[in-house]
Each structure stands twice: as C-alpha cells, then as structure tokens.
Amino acid sequence: MKNILLIINTKKYKSKEIARDIEVYLKDKKINPLILITKTGKEKFETDLKLDLIISLGGDGTVLYSSKFAYKYNCPILPINMGTFGYITEVNKKEWRKELDLYFENKLKYSSRLLVNFELVRNNKVISKGFGLNDVVIKNNKYNKISSINLKIHGTNAGLFKSDGIVVATPTGSTGYALAAGGPIVEPTIEAFIVVSMCPFTLSNRPIVINSEHIIELQLHKNSQQMMLTCDGQLIQDLEPNDIVRCYKNDKKIKLLKSYKRLYYEIVRDKLNWGGSF
C-alpha cells in the first residue's frame, strides 16, 4: 500500500476542506493518507512507513517546510497553491484531482531542485549546520545598522560588503528574498547559487551568479553587532563578530512535481504581471 503525507497549512482559506476531499480520493484508491497540520512551520513529524509522496497544501512557505520531510523520507512533493503569490506552488487548488490522476498514471514530470547547505563556524568549530531549498541569509536584527561582511568564493577573496545583509539563494529561492533584494530570476533547474547584497552601501556591489560547485564563505567583521542567520525564513541563530557562514551544494535534490497545465515562465509572467503584446 502506498503512503502519502498531506501537509496542511490551516491558515490558508479552504485548506481543510480540500484536504478532506483529497483524503477521500486517496482512500478510494486504497492509499494510506497521513495528516500533518501546520500553523508555524515548526511542527514535528515521524513515521516508520515509507512515504511515496508529500502533498503540500499552502503557499511557498509550506513547500519549504515540506522539503525537510521530502529530504528525510526521499520522496517528491506535489505543491498545491492555497494562497495567492506562489512561485514554487505551480498547481492551482482547483487542479489537484487531475494532477493526482496523472501522478498515479506516471504521466507527471518533476523538477529537481538544488539545495544549499550551510555551516556556522565559530572559533574554528562548526556549531550549527543545515540545508535550505530557498536561501541562507545573514542580516541585521536592527534596521538602522549597516553590516560588514567579507565574501570569499571558492577560496578567493571577493571583498568586503557593507549592506543590510547578504542572501545566498538557490535558483528556487531566486524568486524569494533574493528577488526582493534586487537579484535576478534564475531558472530553477540551473546549477548555480545567487549572492545578493541587501541595500548595499556601494552601488558597485552587484548580485553574483556562482557555479554551484563553488564554496561560499561569509565572515562577519570583528565590529559586527546584532546579526542573525536564517535559512528558508526560519531563524537559525544569532551571530557574533568573526563568525563564518559557509555555504555549499547539497548532494541530494528535492523533486517537485510540475503542473500539467502551465510552464515555469508562465507562472513568473503571471505573478510579476508582465504585460504587453507583439
């Protein structure tokens, strides 16, 4: 029997109603549905069963939360958009039945998404580590402070960046925080990282697209204060002067099932309201 985990963001309108419909649909197909309710994106989940699929009912944040379980249980995610502004959630909430029909017929394609690892190094010791689907961010706790962060790319000193912080994003995360900070949109299957300085003090500090095989090191200046590290929007830890955050490619990838109805650039076009005609 297949086991499918439904991760339901109950803050989203009608998520419970659609989850109940999906649960009935799965049981009719003799599939075991497991339910995880999330409101904070921090809820725990454990099972000894083999998961075949995760269905994420929410927005992009719910997919980021779901990615931790997809990584652990080595299964794909079907992201169903219950919100409004979603880039990762390709599937409209009205299309879930058709998507699942195609999934069980082995007719759905998937997109393999790069993950970024991080290590927080303090006094030459790794004190925290993890991975993200979207991004790793160093930023100020206080908005009236400019941070000084030294950037190294694959062992080469790329300079001291004075700004509100730095985002290291995957192509998936290029439409998230990095985009808001002025970074480029990068097609999600490209093997690259994007480094974006947030509100830089010097206009020459431009976004950089980096080979994903390269290691990125961000070191806080000795006078840095009130800085913090986040990953996929979740606070990891407050930072101290001279801390180093090392970012590099994860060996695994997350598989996101694609919409049968629309392509990536259609989603970007519609979300960003690109207009005009030719």
Provide structural commentary.
- The chain is α+β, with helices and mostly antiparallel strands and 278 residues long.
- It has two domains: 3-113 and 253-271, Probable inorganic polyphosphate/atp-NAD kinase, domain 1 (Rossmann fold), CATH 3.40.50; 116-249, Tumour Suppressor Smad4 (Sandwich), CATH 2.60.200.30.
- 18% of the residues lie in helices and 39% in strands.
- It has five helices and 19 strands.
- The protein has helices at 15-28, 60-73, 96-104, 177-180, 264-271, and strands at 3-9, 32-38, 53-58, 77-81, 91-92, 110-113, 116-122, 125-132, 135-140, 147-153, 156-163, 165-169, 192-198, 208-211, 216-220, 227-231, 234-239, 244-249, 254-257.
- The strands form four sheets. It has a six-stranded antiparallel β-sheet with strand order 8-7-18-15-10-11. A six-stranded antiparallel β-sheet has the order 14-13-12-9-16-17, with no helix packed on it. Strands 2-1-3-4-5 form a five-stranded parallel β-sheet, with helices on both faces.
- α2 (60-73) links the parallel β3 (53-58) and β4 (77-81).
- The chain starts with a strand and ends in a 7-residue tail after the last helix.
Shape: globular
CATH fold-level name of the largest domain: Tumour Suppressor Smad4
- Mean pLDDT, nearest integer? 93
Return the structural class.
Answer: alpha+beta
Biggest β-sheet strands, sense, barrel: 6 strands, antiparallel
Query: Radius of gyration from the CA trace?
Result: 20 Å
* Proportion of residues in β-strands: 35-45%
How far is the first residue's CA from the last residue's CA? 51 Å
Uncertain parts? none
Total domains, how many?
A: 2
* Number of beta-strand segments: 19
CATH class of the largest domain: Mainly Beta
CATH A-level architecture of the largest domain: Sandwich
Question: What is the helix tally?
Answer: 5
What are the secondary-structure elements, in order, as H or E?
Answer: EHEEHEEHEEEEEEEHEEEEEEEH
